[in-house]
Design brief:
Layout: H1 27-41, E1 49-55, E2 58-65, E3 67-69, E4 74-75, E5 82-83, H2 88-101, H3 127-131, H4 156-163, H5 180-194, H6 198-210, E6 216-217, E7 231-233, E8 237-239, E9 254-256, H7 258-269, H8 276-282, E10 301-305, E11 308-317, E12 320-327, E13 332-338, H9 344-354, H10 368-371, E14 376-380, E15 386-392, E16 395-400, E17 406-412, E18 415-418, E19 424-429, E20 435-441, E21 447-452, H11 467-470, E22 475-480, E23 483-490, E24 493-498, E25 503-510, E26 513-516, E27 521-528, E28 531-539, E29 542-548
Helix pairs in contact: 1-9, 2-5
Length: 549
């Protein structure tokens, strides 16, 4: 069920057409563009965003939109303090590099030098493996019972006990798997090597040194001026569930402002915190044992954006979503912190337009007769997944196996883009003009392909059930500790909420059989002695059984 979360597709297309490329914007043009996009993407009565955009060492935009607190009707301001989630990891990584420069540790040290009781089962796990998400240790946030633990304050030992005895995913250095456990352990290593708490080390050696006066280690009981409230979007906006900040710790516990983050960015790149040699390592993608690049250094992701190098990271934590990106070739820095809405597409859009690489022209409406050419099921290259393309009104929809339904809009002949994405599809035709496949590429230049099959999309028929019948399925069905499906009836329809995910409508198509329109998922309930006891969830290539509590 983890795939129920809204995700960007792995395979999408980008092609740059000379007619669609804009000239680079000057600072005044950029400021005007940013203000327009800010108002377009963040409404005044919804959770908001703070934003900083800088170019060549000068802040060209510092502002905000939306609300900092919906209950008190407080608008968001640029100096509001928000949780930054996993952007915390770069502070943790730099703290490790600071301690290495002081001779208090070496990133090639085995972690048992600082965590002697940690069960590595004879495997050599280095500090560098933790920094680069290549340790093979299981991330505690991926464990099935994680959600049931987030409200309770825990010691670092109690947290490590949650994941230390889990089977490893792979041999250290052989694969990349984003890992909060690794950065949690780095926090403990910082404490062991420095003799200070993680909180004190970050505050005294980074925040105070740089002058980040509005940055904090997260505490629920601390009075933090201008702290924004966090929200989550389901049917309606709700207050974010409580999270003890002992849980994210060195992997995601910090709070800051976008202006403070820019101070941090400037200090880092002016080598005020660590030496250039240390920073160069942090900004170099780690190489696996087989020679493949991971696109991740120490605390930052390293990638390409329309042919230019990009240094970036995002964060997601209860009630808050953050994103930062830096294009070093043009010295453009963008950071956006939101208290409920994902700002990643927004920041990418601004960057693409600022550097003159925004690929799309205006959306074009196509008739059903034209759209019919693209309808079909496409086999994804080098994958078991398939992609289903169908018509919805004047546009297409796309389903990848086990994924979410996304709208696909035309902007040129055979060229389409996803809503709230810079990703593009181009449908390919043979010599006879028949659509035979899809070529896909992200803004980072990665390409994927899919071949059109002879299969036809299934048109599913909805069976209308009365409310009394629907009530049989109401209840909480547990897949694993801390993760469940909550079915309810509203407006004579069945709805489901998976733990931590938005509410979705469920449609009947037969006896005890249901499906979702917004996610590639089928549900089949089991009835024993006139009582519903469980539901089988078929999510793409995955099958899960959830038992009624």
């Amino acid at each position: 069920m983890k795939n129920l979360k809204t995700t960007l597709f792995v395979m999408v297309l980008f092609l740059i057409f000379s007619s669609a490329i804009n000239a680079q914007l000057n600072n005044q043009e950029s400021k005007s563009l940013i203000q327009q996009e800010l108002q377009k993407h963040f409404k005044s009565d919804e959770p908001g965003v703070t934003l900083v955009v800088a170019k060549e060492g000068e802040i060209i935009f510092l502002g905000a939109a939306g609300m900092a607190n919906l209950e008190l009707n407080v608008p968001m301001k640029a100096n509001n303090v928000l949780r930054i989630g996993s952007i915390t990891k770069q502070f943790t990584a730099v703290a490790i590099l600071m301690l290495q420069e002081q001779g208090k540790l070496n990133i090639q040290d085995d972690i048992t030098k600082y965590l002697p009781s940690y069960p590595t089962n004879g495997k050599e796990i280095t500090i560098e493996h933790l920094l680069t998400h290549t340790s093979g240790i299981r991330s505690y946030t991926s464990l099935s019972d994680f959600m049931g633990k987030i409200r309770d304050d825990k010691t670092t030992k109690e947290m490590i006990d949650i994941f230390k005895d889990k089977d490893m995913l792979f041999e250290p250095g052989e694969e990349f798997s984003y890992n909060n456990s690794g950065y949690f352990l780095l926090g403990v290593i910082i404490e062991k090597a420095s003799g200070m708490t993680y909180e004190d080390f970050i505050e005294k050696n980074i925040f105070e040194k740089i002058g980040m006066e509005n940055s904090y280690y997260g505490r629920a009981d601390q009075i933090i001026p201008n702290r924004a409230s966090g929200y989550e979007l389901e049917d309606d906006v709700i207050n974010a569930p409580y999270l003890s900040m002992t849980i994210p710790y060195a992997a995601g516990s910090l709070l800051s402002t976008v202006e403070d983050l820019y101070k941090w960015h400037r200090a880092i790149h002016n080598y005020q915190v660590v030496k250039k040699s240390s920073l160069d390592k942090a900004f170099t993608p780690y190489t696996l044992k087989n020679g493949d690049s991971t696109d991740y250094g120490y605390g930052w992701g390293i990638d390409s954006f329309y042919g230019e190098k990009i240094i970036q990271h995002s964060g997601g934590i209860n009630g808050f979503v953050t994103n930062e990106m830096y294009l070093p070739e043009q010295d453009i820095f963008i950071a956006a912190f939101s208290n409920g809405k994902n700002p990643s597409f927004f920041t990418q859009l601004i960057a693409a337009k600022m550097i003159g690489k925004y690929p799309m022209t205006k959306r074009k409406s196509l008739s059903p007769e034209v759209l019919a050419d693209y309808v079909g099921i496409y086999q994804v290259e080098n994958s078991k997944d398939k992609r289903t393309i169908k018509i919805k009104g004047d546009h297409l929809t796309s389903f990848r196996t086990g994924g979410n339904l996304l709208n696909l809009y035309s902007f040129d002949k055979d060229k389409f883009y996803f809503e709230k994405s810079l990703d593009i599809f181009e449908f390919k035709r043979n010599k006879e003009g028949k659509v035979v496949g899809i070529i896909a590429q992200l803004p980072n230049g990665k390409i994927g392909r899919a071949i059109k099959t002879d299969e036809k999309p299934i048109e599913r028929k909805v069976v209308k059930l009365d409310e009394q019948t629907l009530q049989k399925y109401v209840g909480i069905y547990e897949i694993g500790p801390g993760f469940a499906l909550d079915f309810s009836v509203k407006d004579n329809s069945l709805w489901v909420i998976a733990t931590g995910e938005p509410k979705l409508q469920v449609f009947a198509e037969g006896d005890h059989k249901f499906f979702l329109k917004d996610v590639d998922a089928n549900l089949e309930f089991k009835e024993v002695e006139n009582k519903i006891t469980e539901v089988k969830v078929n999510l793409g290539n995955e099958i899960h059984i959830a038992y009624k509590k």
